[in-house]
Amino acid sequence: MENLLDIGVEFLRLVPLMLAFYIPALIGMAIWSEGGEGYRIKALLWFAIGFGLIIALHVVFTGASAQQVAALLALSLVQVGAALGLAALTVYKLAD
Predict the structure, then answer these.
(1) For 29, which of 52, 81, 87, 96 could close a Cys bridge (C-beta 3.0–4.6 Å)?
(2) What is the 3-state secondary structure (H, E, C) of 19-80?
(3) Do 50 and 23 contact (CB within 8 A), yes or no?
């Protein structure tokens, strides 16, 4: 039971950063769904700048060591994936 509680607490610690990743993911997915080559480039720029800036600020504010930065980047990739998935569901559900 204690292990289950620890897993729940760790998951809840990830939610605020996942919500921060959701904003550029939502804007990027909305631009991506517009279509056209120019729109895809704009969406990729939103993803790169938005996610990169959030990750960079998180690394700077935590003052992490090299190992912690590697773990933070891996965890951030999972959070970015979850945010992109939620944004894709949101954009395509709103479009229907």
Answers:
(1) 87
(2) HHHHHHHHHHHHHHCCCCHHHHHHHHHHHHHHHHHHHHHHHHHHCCCHHHHHHHHHHHHHHH
(3) yes
Q: Give 32's contacts (C-beta < 8 A, 6+ positions apart).
A: 39, 40, 43
pLDDT digits (tens, 9 = 90+) for 31-76: 888 877 888 888 888 889 988 888 888 888 877 788 888 888 888 8
Whole-prediction pTM: 0.75
pLDDT confidence tier of residue 95, bands split at 50, 70 and 90: low
Rounded to whole angstroms, how far apart are CA atoms 86 and 89?
Answer: 5
